[in-house]
Amino acid sequence: MSSVGVSVKRKDAVEKVTGKARFVADYKLPNMAYAYTIRSPKPHILIKKIDFSKALKVKGVIKIITAKDVPGKNEVPLVYKDYPVFAEKECKFEGQPIGLVVAEDLDSARKAASLIEIDYKELPAVFDSLEAMKKNSPRIYGKDNIYKKFKIKKGDLKKGRAEADIIVEDTFTTNYQVHTYLETNGALADPQPDGSMIVYGTMQCPFYVLDAVSYTLGMPKSKVTIIQTTTGGGFGGKEDVPSIISSHAAIAAYVVKRPVKIIYSREEDFIAMSKRHPGWAKIKLGAKKNGKLTFAEIKYVIDGGAFATLSPIVLWRGTVHAAGPYEIPNVLINTYAVATNKVPCGAYRGFGQPQINFAQESLMDELAEKLNMSPLKIREINGLKKNSITATGHKLQEAGIKPVLKEVINKSGYIKKWKPVVNKKGKIRKGIGLSVTYYGVGLGAAGKHLSRTGAFVQVESDGSVRIAFGNTEMGQGAKTVLSQITAETLNAPYEVIQVEATDTSRVPDSGPTVASRTTFMSGNALMNACNPILLNLKKAASELLGCKIKDITAKNNRFYFKNKSVSYFKAVEFAHQKKFQMSFQGWYVAPEPTFDKNGLGTAYYSYTFSANVVEVSVNMETGEYKVEKIWAAHDIGKAINPQLSEGQIQGGALQGMGYAVMENLVINEGHMVNPNFTGYIIPTAKDIPVLNPIIVENKDKNGPYGARGLGEPPLIGIAPAVANAVYNAAGIRLKHNPLLPESLFNALNNKR
Amino acid sequence: MQNIEINLTVNKKHYTLSVNPLKPLINVIREDIGLTGTKSGCGKGECGACTLLLNGKPVTSCIIPAAQANNADIVTIEGIGSEEKLHPIQEAFVEEGAVQCGFCTPGMIISSYALLKKNSNPAEDEIKEAISGNLCRCTGYTKIIQAVKKASKKMR
Amino acid sequence: MEYIKVKSVKEIGKIKKNNPVYFLAGSTDFMIMYKENMIPENSIIFDISKLPLNYIKMQNNKVVIGALTTFSEIADNKTLKKYFPALIEAASSIGSPQIRNRATIGGNIGNGSPAGDSIPALFVYNAKIKTTKKTYKAEEFFKGVKKTVLENGELIKEIELPVLKGKYNSYFFKSGAREALAISKASLACLISVKNKIITDIRLAAGAVGVTVVKCNKTEEFLMNRTIDDNVISSAQDIIKEDIAPITDFRSTKEYRENIISYYLKQALKSAIR
Fold first, then answer.
1. Fewer Cβ atoms within 10 A, N terminus or C terminus of chain A?
2. Would you state the pLDDT for residue B135?
3. pLDDT tens digits for A546-564?
4. How close, in Å, is residue C254 to chain A by CA atoms?
5. Nearest residue on chain B to A268, judged by CA atoms?
6. Which is nearest to C98 in space by CA: A732, B26, A667, B154?
7. Which chain B positions have a beta carbon within 8 Å of C49's beta carbon?
8. In chain C, which among 212-241 make CB contacts under 8 A with chain B?
9. Confidence of residue C17 (pLDDT cuts 50, 70, 90)
10. Which of these, A506, A505, A491, lies nearest to A459 by C-alpha position?
11. Looking at beta carbons, which residues of chain B come within 8 Å of A682?
12. Strand residues in A125-215 grouped as ranges (E)
């Protein structure tokens, strides 16, 4: 193949290396105003009154906008509609938006905001998810503070327990993770002369934003256009919250009748924007003496913060994957997403899996030790393989863990390097840890109503090609990979493909850019648009070469009949002359997964399997440790662009390492203590381990050219692999993530 | 506070501006001069996205007051190369897959440029040190380091 | 707020007002405070960045460093590396290359943070801090978190480091949450002279484990003139925990900080007798 499978240069690399790529903060429109958000000063308050008088006197202030100015509904449509655009009386988390100051420049807006006096009464608040589930805790949501709960019940738990020779049980917790995309959230709303509204912004899901802006403006969707600007990182953090900011900007623009730009400061982004849910999990695993798992009993709770946002679906994915990539005949899983008076949590790479997989992959190692078995052996014995039945009763079509496990074990030299912890000596000890995970690609059964995507392909008479699709580029390489798929399918050179900005007026609602679904969904939609064009190109070629269409072979940007051929460009020119249709819309609907009331079904149409090996060295005297090397193998079916795939694996693995080793957001009594880069620590170039990406390709039967999703899997298994490596080195099982050196030192000290 | 007049050279072009002396240099570059390639990631000098060269040295422009750019020679990403003629560092970043979302990229290239001016054959540790003040959340840094190595080869 | 660019130190003395005075040098601390609205409206900002206070020179058995010398310049200086390696180590660990190109030693001292990485090294090298008013011993300069002996409008001009005679080992250790751009959880500067394993001179200063950088007097007293062996090291490790007063905050815990300081001490003592 000439494009697919080749590490072509990114479509957007040159504009990015020259500084020409335009992010939303770089846009300047005539008569543009700036808005700054007024926010709740405390975690749970009832507003009595607000005095805007001093603020209104500040030079440059145009208008102050509050809930009463919302033209449509004062609710941001996310999964539920519990998040107000602007709080009216009650605020449920510190930082919740109450209104906007719109001014000629940002400094004036900020100055005015600081002069606003809010008279409020503090209400009882709850900051811990387990506390919030208790009967006597303050009510934040509904009657029990539970946004959502799920249950998976497979087989017979009693039987499974009885059959187990060894049972292990433990409780694990994980803290927040903050996306820290380098570009903060922001939006620019531009009201049009005909009353319609365009909103530009950094975002992953323009169609979610379309829903929100039309709903909050009370405007029909056809009068609202959302255009995604070059997006400086997302990782899930720009899945839901752009709906809020874009609504804010659009409402302000609507009211003041001028373009309005809102760009969040880093601190604001920390305080108010989405995060990875803190997790709590209690897991029990039982196995026979021969290592075969007989049951899994899991309770998993995620801390959703003050509003539901995406918690119900984050919980669902976590639920489906809670038992790990293993054959377990008897399973009981109970999961809960809970309301607290803290910043609402949403999507973050892994989407509910990293927390529970940290717990479950750690416990697998504990189980292995009790069975006197290596961590590798227990996984080999129980790992899912083709035709295995998953925890939700899904008969697996994929190859399972074996191919990735084999690769990662070979490349890391795990077998030679692994020694049981009892044999470790010395002040600096080395350890090696393993984890295996799987990831259902796409939105799954819980999101199947969104599982459709549109695309548009237009071949110009000179052979250049315009494409538009509904998913977004956020650095992962979507523009490039989708261009490669298009080029391959059209038998056109990669260079002629021109990608349009993702614009809701260009393609129909294509769902969100999440769940590692883009290559799969948009790739297939583009192929659907390309196929009829290819047919017309073959028709053109067949007329030029004097044969039947079925005799034409398309390859290497030429069309062949026996030993004659015409170039792609010639075929295009002729096709245009003959008035063949050379532009088509594509539409792809994913195979529908299922999930019944017992949590059973074919939850996802495809699964990406992964295996990680981590090497650490531990200073037994101080608790300091270093992650030295990571090997990460992912079965992605087909790497459309191997270099980009490696980049995803390396980037995701380092984010996973940051999550495990150093990223610690501190919220005390609902107040965020370290909302900045000084206090919330992410890895620098000097902190990186050797990152070895391993691409495994067992083709997916539905994916474009056999490809499957890769965006999220690279992060998921790192934390448990680190925890397992630390245990292997030091004999200490750290059950709270992040695995801080302070925690290790404390445990080592207590052991002495 | 009263505005002051500052004279500065940015990418070989002279500017005379009247600014608040404490206006952050990045805002002068982005707003008064109109060069938006330099990015603001945190506003506190903690992420490196706003890195540019001030008298040949890489600095975080978000915490430099405009007054101290008076008589300064500044180079931003726009001064390193253009689409028509990419600098070898820019070429290497493209070739090695060192660019993902692109937000850290201008600052990262400036820091790399400054390194290669001082040290034409840096070791891996020296590269890591040179970019240690530029945070990247997408790439895991590995391909960026490879790109700087490749650039140093191209430039020798 | 008033901004005044000064060309000579004398110009600062001329202004006699009761307004809070700030000195703008590298501006890495100042600009953050300014952006967070922590600079009072009636402040006078003296831009001293063009004063002739950027130098490192040898002057009669002393090395003098001008207050405007940046940490990049300090980290690269051969004279300082020869005589004051712990200061080089500290300077190289501050912030990032971009920060080091701007941050000045005068600013690091004037900011008076107990986590100011250059300060422990100044303690152990018996540094003197010369201001427009008088000359202070580094150890007497710091009073509390971001509190120094400086009066309003008093400017740090120069740091003086006496060149030590004889053989000595100096070390600087820093514990941070990551390898760069890290605020210290705990740091330790040590100066140790040994002869036949007997300590003839010992100076220890710990950073980020108290409201100011702490001179570890009890530990120094214990170690002075003692022969270094495992028992002595072990005892010293216990004593240093009494000299310092670390807290638990969101960056780290009291126990971790105590332990790592004592660990650094051990490393220093073991290295000194190798």
1. C
2. 98
3. 999 999 999 999 999 999 9
4. 9
5. B42
6. B26
7. 68
8. none
9. low
10. A491
11. 135, 137
12. 146-154, 166-174, 186-191, 197-201
**Which pLDDT value is given to residue C14?**
65
Q: Are C3 and B2 an interchain contact pair (Cβ–Cβ within 8 Å)?
A: yes
How far, CA to CA in Å, does A511 sit from each of A206, A441, A448, A471, A519? Answer: 8, 14, 10, 8, 13
Q: Is B44 on the interface with C (CB under 8 A)?
A: yes
- Banded model confidence at residue A1, pLDDT cuts 50, 70, 90: confident
Contact call for C97 and B46, based on CB within 8 A:
no
Per-residue pLDDT tens over the stretch C103-126: 999 999 999 999 999 999 999 999
CATH architecture of structural domain B88-155: Orthogonal Bundle (1.10)
pLDDT in tens, A301-328: 999 999 999 999 999 999 999 999 999 9
| Interface contact flag, A681 C182, Cβ < 8 Å | yes
Pick from A708, A688, A699, A702: which is nearest to A645 by CA? A708
Q: In this complex, which of C24, C49, C95 lies closest to B133 when CB atoms are compared? A: C95
Q: Which helix (H) or strand (E) holds A269?
A: helix A266-272
Per-residue pLDDT at A515: 86
Q: Do B103 and A183 touch (CB under 8 A)?
A: yes
Contact B111, B48 (CB under 8 A): yes
CB distance A683 to B130 below 8 Å: no
Q: Does any CB of chain C come closer than 8 Å to the CB of residue B55?
A: no
- B76 to chain A, any CB pair closer than 8 A? The answer is yes
Give me the pLDDT at residue A748, please.
97
DSSP class of A501: P
Q: Which of residues 235-274 of C touch A (CB under 8 A)?
A: 250-253, 255-256, 259-260, 263
Contacts B2 to C, Cβ<8 Å: 3
Q: Report how far residue A546's alpha carbon sits from residue A558's, in angstroms, rounded to the nearest whole number.
A: 15
Answer whether A197's CB lies under 8 Å from A210's CB. no
Contact C2 B24 (CB under 8 A): no
Instruction: Provide the token pair at A332.
Output: 């009981």
Q: How many CB pairs under 8 A join A and B?
A: 167
Domain ranges of chain B: 4-77, 88-155
Q: Are C119 and C207 in contact (CB under 8 A)?
A: yes
Q: Could you check whether the bond before residue B24 is cis, i.e. omega within 30 degrees of 0?
A: no
- Domain B4-77 in CATH 3.10.20.30? The answer is yes
A18 and B101 in contact by Cβ < 8 A? no
Q: From the CA of C187, how many Å to the nearest CA of chain A?
A: 14
- Residue C15: pLDDT band with limits 50, 70, 90: low
With an 8 Å Cβ cutoff, are B144 and A685 in contact?
A: yes
Residue A591 confidence (pLDDT):
84
Residue type, C82: K
Distances (CA, A) of A59 to A100, A110, A111, C33: 16, 12, 10, 24
The answer to whether B81 faces chain C, any CB pair under 8 Å, is no
Q: What is the average pLDDT score of chain C?
A: 96
A746:C182 CB<8 A? no
Whether residue A153 has pLDDT greater than 70: yes
More confidently predicted of A595 and A92 = A92
Q: Is C34 on the interface with A (CB under 8 A)?
A: no
CB A484 within 8 A of CB A490: no
Pairing of strands B57-60, A260-263: unpaired
Q: Order of strands, edge to edge, in the sheet holding A553-555?
A: A553-555, A558-561, A564-567
Rounded Cα distance, A530 and A524, in Å: 10
Contacts of C28 in chain B (CB under 8 A): 45, 63
Q: Which domains does chain A have, with CATH numbers?
A: 26-123+180-272 (3.90.1170.50), 279-445+596-751 (3.30.365.10), 452-589 (3.30.365.10)
> Which tokens go with A639?
């790497």
Nearest CA in chain B to C92: B129
